[in-house]
Amino acid sequence: MTLMMLLSAVTTARAQEKFENKTLALMENIAMNSEQKNVVEFLKKADYEKVSESEEDGGKTYYFMGPNSYMMKIEYNKSKKLVNIVMRITSDFPVIIDIQTNLVQHGFVNRDYKQFHFAKSSYPYKFLTMNDEDNSSAATIYLLTKYSENYQK
């Protein structure tokens, strides 16, 4: 039993990427270190304020506003498992390039060039990045878990 716990700890420790990009780092931190019951307090420490929440089919969705007018939506299923983290960011420069570059530097591969669907076999989550067609300084980044309908696509 002790060997199994050690292998699990090593696997979990290896899976965390420690991104240089603050947006990716925050999304990873939320996914790996928070739960539905503490996500509001968790994000308060990162200067995000809950602006609303909703429930559908037993699942819960939280909406947050953060520094620089960044918006975040965090979805949980009825089993209280994380489904998606969606972050809408704006900046004075095209931020999507920095995010995509950081993903590639960490060994993620783009699986779909229309949607920029980044995956890495040793990592438990996938990322979907999308530029705003009307505003090159705005982007939407999704962290997808295995519970997301977009995870396998």
Give an overview in words.
By secondary structure, the protein is an alpha+beta fold. 28% of the residues lie in helices and 31% in strands. It contains four helices and eight strands. It has helices at 2-15, 22-33, 39-44, 95-105; strands at 49-56, 59-65, 71-76, 82-90, 109-110, 117-119, 126-131, 138-144. It has an eight-stranded antiparallel sheet with strand order 1-2-3-4-8-7-6-5. The longest helix has 14 residues, at 2-15. The chain starts with a helix and ends in a 9-residue tail after the last strand. The relative contact order is 0.15. The model is unreliable at 1-14 (pLDDT under 50).
Give a quick precis of the structure.
With 153 residues, this protein is α+β, with helices and mostly antiparallel strands. The protein has helices spanning 2-15, 22-33, 39-44, 95-105; strands at residues 49-56, 59-65, 71-76, 82-90, 109-110, 117-119, 126-131, 138-144.
Instruction: List the uncertain runs.
Output: 1-14
Task: Tell me the structural class.
Answer: alpha+beta
The number of E-state strands comes to: 8
In round numbers, the mean pLDDT is: 86
Largest sheet: 8 strands, antiparallel
Q: State the helix count.
A: 4
Distance between the termini: 36 Å
**Per the principal axes of the C-alpha atoms, what is the gross shape?**
globular
User: Considering DSSP H and I runs of 4 or more, what fraction of the residues is helical?
Assistant: 25-40%
* Proportion of strand residues: 25-35%
Order of helices and strands: HHHEEEEHEEEE
Strand order in the sheet with the most strands: 1-2-3-4-8-7-6-5
If you compute it from the alpha carbons, what radius of gyration comes out, rounded to the nearest whole angstrom?
16 Å
